Amino acid sequence: MNFPTDICMTGATGLVGNELLLLLANIEHVGHVTVVSRKPVGRFPAKVETVLLDFDKLASQGSSLKAHTFVCCLGTTIKVAGSQEAFRKVDYDYVMEFAKVAEKAQAQKFIVISAMGADAGSSIFYNRVKGEMERDLRKLSIPQIEIFRPSLLLGDRKEKRAGEGLMQKLSPVMNALMIGPLKKYKAIAATDVAKAMALSILNFNAGQFIYESDEIQRMSDSIKADI
C-alpha cells in the first residue's frame, strides 16, 4: 500500500459515497479528504474539507482542486432526475467534467461507480449512458482508472427509488439462487462497495480496471474491519 493519500471526492451524499466518506475519514493512512458538493454534507473529522461548487461550472471552478486520488460516486435515476437529459447531465456530463479536473490536476488515480450492464452500444438508455461514460473516461491520461460496477445496492437511501424497496426485501432469496456465472448479479451492500473502493484507494497499480459486482464482494470480504 502507498500512503498517506490525499483524496478529492464527489457524490459523498449518496448511498455508497456516504459510506465511503465515513470510512476514509477514519483511516489513519488517508491524509486529507476534499469533498466537492453542491450542498453541505454534515460534520466529519478535521481532515475532511467540504468545497461547495456549481457542478455546471466544474471546468472553470474546479481548477483549485488537487489530490493524488479522485473518487466519483455520482449517480441518479431517470425518475429522480426528471428526464433522460437531466439523468445524462449527472451520470455522464458531471462525471466526465470531474474526471477532466482530475486529469488537469495530474491525479494519479480516478475511481468511479458505474453500473452492472454498462455498455456504450446498449439499446437501454441507462446502460448506454454508463457505457459511454466508461468509454470516454478510459481515454483520459490518468495513470490508474478503476471502474466499479455493482449490482442492486442494499442500504438505506435518503431518497426512495421505486421498486428498490421490494427488490431489497427479495434479495436474500434471489441471492441464494445466483450461483456460478450468475454470482455477479447478486445484490450487494453499499458498505461492501465502499470497503472495496477504500481498498483500491489505498493501493496504486497503474492501468485500467473494471470490477463486476461479484469481484467487488470478494474485495470487500478480503479486508479486515479496520482496513
What tags apply to this protein structure?
single chain, 227 residues, alpha/beta, 7-stranded parallel sheet, two-stranded parallel ribbon, 8 helices, 9 strands
How would you portray this structure in words?
With 227 residues, the protein is an alpha/beta fold. The chain is 39% helix and 19% strand. It has a 7-stranded parallel β-sheet, sandwiched between helices. α1 (15-25) links the parallel β1 and β2. α1 packs across α7 (190-201), α4 (84-104) runs parallel beside α5 (125-137) and α7 packs across α8 (213-221). The N and C termini lie close together (11 Å). Mean pLDDT is 87; it is low at 161-171 and 173-177.
Count of helix runs:
8
Mean pLDDT, rounded to whole units? 87
Shape: globular
Q: What's the β-strand tally?
A: 9
Task: Give the oligomer, counting copies of the same chain as homo and different chains as hetero.
Answer: single chain
Secondary-structure-based class equals alpha/beta
Gap between N and C termini, in Å? 11 Å
* Widest sheet, order of strands: 3-2-1-4-5-6-9
Rg is 17 Å
Low-confidence parts, pLDDT < 50 over ≥5 residues?
161-171, 173-177
Determine the strand fraction and express it as a percent band: 15-25%
The share of residues in helices is: 25-40%
Order of helices and strands: EHEEHEHHEHEEHEHEH
Query: Major beta sheet, specifics?
Result: 7 strands, parallel
